[in-house]
Amino acid sequence: MALRANPYYKGVCHIALAQEVLLGTDSHTCDVGAFGQFATGIGNTDAGFVLGTGTLILETGIVASLDALVKEFLSASNEEKKAIFSRIAGEADHLKGSTARSKSWYGKIYLTAVKNFMEKGADYAKNEMNWLHSMLNKSIRPAKATEFTLKKNILSTFA
């Protein structure tokens, strides 16, 4: 679906669709939350890329410190996995004090994923990602779609 802004409009213009994330480059971007729309700011270079290609690569949910620990966890022996799990739990707990509430939530997703990986085996992440993908292809509430996308992004580290 191609969207075009009115070429005669010279002010701030946002185009938003239901169940989508609004990307903005100005100070008004954050105002759309009042209308039940999720928005995030992007830089002008990113905006130019979006306008030119119609795509934007977002890695929402990824926490670099936890991602590094997960990669270490995946290559470790069973005994080492337990020690690394403790480090992941500590890092996730550290995120609880973050000023960004979302980081605390991301930490919980990482911790749950590692627990499930240990309990359900190496296929857990692949099976969960397939399920999330199938759910995202259905008509679901925007909040659920956001949650599932975050989980899918985080689980991609395990795959």
From TrEMBL:
Q: In its UniProt record, which GO terms are filed under biological process?
A: oxoacid metabolic process
Task: Report TM segments.
Answer: none
Pinpoint the Aconitase/3-isopropylmalate dehydratase large subunit alpha/beta/alpha domain residues: 11-59
Quick one: signal sequence residues?
Answer: none
Give yes or no: UniProt keyword Metal-binding: yes
Q: State a single Gene Ontology molecular function.
A: metal ion binding
Gene Ontology cellular component?
A: endoplasmic reticulum
Q: Which domain of life is it from?
A: Eukaryota
Ordered alphabetically, the record's keywords are:
Iron, Iron-sulfur, Lyase, Metal-binding
Q: Look up the coiled coil feature and give its residue ranges.
A: none
Does Ion transport count among this protein's keywords?
no
Q: Name one Pfam family in it.
A: Aconitase
Q: SUPFAM superfamilies attached here?
A: Aconitase iron-sulfur domain, ERP29 C domain-like
Report the residue ranges that make up the Endoplasmic reticulum resident protein 29 C-terminal domain in this protein: 61-158
PANTHER family, alphabetized: HOMOACONITASE, MITOCHONDRIAL, HOMOACONITASE, MITOCHONDRIAL-RELATED
Write the protein's name: Aconitase/3-isopropylmalate dehydratase large subunit alpha/beta/alpha domain-containing protein
Q: Please report the organism this UniProt entry assigns to the protein.
A: Tetracentron sinense
